[in-house]
From TrEMBL:
Name recorded for this polypeptide: Glutathione reductase (NADPH)
Entry binding sites for NAD(+): 173-180, 261
Residues bound to FAD: 51, 301
Lineage: Bacteria, Bacillati, Bacillota, Bacilli, Lactobacillales
Family affiliation: Belongs to the class-I pyridine nucleotide-disulfide oxidoreductase family.
Organism: Weissella soli
Keyword annotations of the record: FAD, Flavoprotein, NAD, Nucleotide-binding
């Protein structure tokens, strides 16, 4: 028997769920299909568990800064207890997502979905038709090709579920995941080798500020293997693996992980049966996130859309498609400024125009050290820097922030960009005092006394 719905969604990650719920709420019969963990990458084996683990790393680091300023002793990460804390967050996620679907009345089917024709999919041999399909199948870790022994490598899911932190690990990659996991593993006491195949880390970020990230990683004992092209991985035992480079260098560890980017889950959808075309980086979509087949949309990591592949952007795209289908969104999606964060120690956040692009456009780049701001000074935080870009009219158009609270501060700059604020506008906002917001406001008021260890000259 074939079931029919007005809207069908493939993939129950942040993007799929963010389109399914509002469609059902608008009275459209909606079904969502998931083949693995309800909730998808972010809450199960991505952003959220990573940030839960980071809680202990941040607490340990903050305690270290305060040594001699009111704290003494030595903090150690108890990986088993930390994992239990993480599992207390992740274990209930899939069941909770299903409960939410039941509460809002979205039908859900468990299994692998693939197209039979442009209106029909197959799940476990059952046929489902829908007037509108939304593909939200996300992405999976890219793997090294033509590397013997590659299958010995774990990925992000393996790392975020490690029952024990091995004594020595290798992270192959030099992007978000490699840097974030290197920081967590090093704080948990592992000897970490970060294997970069070129001579840079986080190449899409401000390369001046990434030097601080490199210094901080090295200070924590992370060994960065530059220009290391992995050609083979060998297994000596269940707890000993060797990663071999083209130039003969070797790194022997207890566990090695791969984090070299992600590829969209497009290959097992039988897209040809639906006539859906691929772009360079996922499913080809127009400015309304419609594929070349008018009743099929793609959102989130799987869509070849012009933004960073993040939970925030995926959910934003999904809400847009729901709004478009419900008649509340315009025919073209326009994205606000997208803040992008690397959750290392320190954290690195960026939004809007980069300093490099600003130099090309002749825009003003204001660079400043924030360690004297009260919020940073009281914590004895060693590194806190920012670069803020102003256009010719004085409006903020970009910012990059490096500090333990960069994830919060970048949000202020994101709002400043989206609401077209200049220095004057920031000064005219009232923020809770003392807080990062008030520090920022004082900075722009010119009343921050940079020479007096964070004391504000009122
Ligand atoms: C380690 C890690 C850390 C991250 N940290 C952050 C962060 O801090 N901040 C941030 O914004 N982003 C972060 N991300 C990125 C974020 O997780 C993704 O951008 C986000 O999950 C994308 O959502 P999505 O719904 O498009 O895809 P996904 O979350 O991947 O969901 C897609 C779902 O579709 C299912 N599926 C696939 N194919 C089929 C099929 N044929 N049939 C049925 N179901 C199918 C999958 O099983 C999956 O559950 C991180 C990613 C990783 C890996
Ligand atoms: N904080 C966050 O928002 C966050 C955190 C983690 C992941 N993510 C998302 O997940 C995606 C995947 O993260 P990622 O770190 O795997 O990818 P990435 O795209 O951030 O970085 C991949 C890195 O691997 C390197 N690389 C490519 N091929 C290689 C090879 N053969 N050997 C060694 N290095 C190689 C690349 O030069 C690049 O620096 C991110 O792009 C992002 O969309 C976001």
């Amino acid at each position: 028997m074939t079931e029919h719905f007005e809207v069908g969604v493939i993939g129950a990650g942040p993007a799929g769920l963010s389109v399914a719920h509002p469609m059902q709420a608008a009275g459209k019969s909606t079904v969502i299909i998931e083949e693995y963990l309800w909730g998808g990458t972010c809450p199960n084996y991505g952003c959220d568990p990573k940030k839960v683990l980071l809680a202990a790393v941040e607490a340990k680091e903050r305690a270290e800064w305060m040594k001699g300023f009111g704290l003494r002793g030595h903090e150690e990460i108890d990986w088993h207890a930390l994992m239990a804390h993480k599992n207390a967050y992740t274990d209930p996620v899939p069941a909770r997502k299903v409960m939410n679907l039941d509460e809002t009345g979205v039908a859900h089917r468990y299994g692998h979905a693939f197209f039979v024709d442009a209106h029909t999919i197959d799940v476990n041999g059952q046929r489902i038709t829908a007037d509108t399909w939304v593909i939200a199948t996300g992405a999976r870790p890219a793997r090294l090709t033509d590397v013997p022994g590659e299958a010995y490598l774990f990925d992000n899911e393996g790392f975020l579920n490690l029952a024990d932190m091995p004594d020595e690990i290798a992270l192959i990659g030099s992007g978000f995941i490699a840097v974030e996991f290197a920081n967590i593993a090093a704080a948990a006491g592992a000897k970490v080798h970060l294997i970069a195949h070129k001579h840079h880390l986080l190449h899409e970020f401000d390369q001046d500020l990434t030097q601080d990230i490199i210094r901080q990683l090295e200070a924590k004992g992370v060994r960065i293997e530059w220009d290391f092209e992995t050609v083979e991985v060998t297994k000596q035992s269940n707890t000993e693996y060797t990663v071999i480079a083209a130039d003969g260098r070797t790194v022997t560890v207890n566990r090695a992980f791969v984090a070299i980017g992600r590829v969209g889950n497009t290959d097992r959808l039988n897209l040809a049966a639906a006539g859906v075309e691929l772009g360079h980086n996922g499913i080809k979509v127009g400015k309304d996130l419609r594929t070349n087949v008018p009743h099929i949309f793609a959102v989130g990591d799987v869509a070849d859309s012009p933004v960073a592949k993040l939970t925030s952007t995926g959910a934003f795209e999904a809400r847009y498609v729901a709004g478009l289908l419900n008649g509340t969104e315009p025919a073209e999606l326009s994205y606000p400024a997208v803040p992008v964060m690397v959750y290392g120690s320190p954290k690195l956040g960026t939004v809007g125009m980069s300093a490099e692009e600003a130099a090309r456009q002749g825009y003003a780049v204001e660079e400043f050290d924030m360690t004297n701001w009260l919020e940073y000074w009281r914590l004895k935080e060693p590194v806190a820097k920012a670069k803020v870009i102003f256009d010719h009219e004085g409006y903020i158009v970009g910012a990059t922030v490096l500090s333990g609270s960069a994830d919060e501060l970048i949000n202020y700059f994101t709002v400043a960009i989206n609401t077209k604020q200049d220095k004057q506008a920031i000064k005219h906002n009232l923020y809770a005092y003392p807080s990062l917001g008030s520090d920022m406001s004082f900075y722009y008021s010119g009343s921050n006394d940079a020479t007096a260890f964070g004391g504000h000259a009122f």
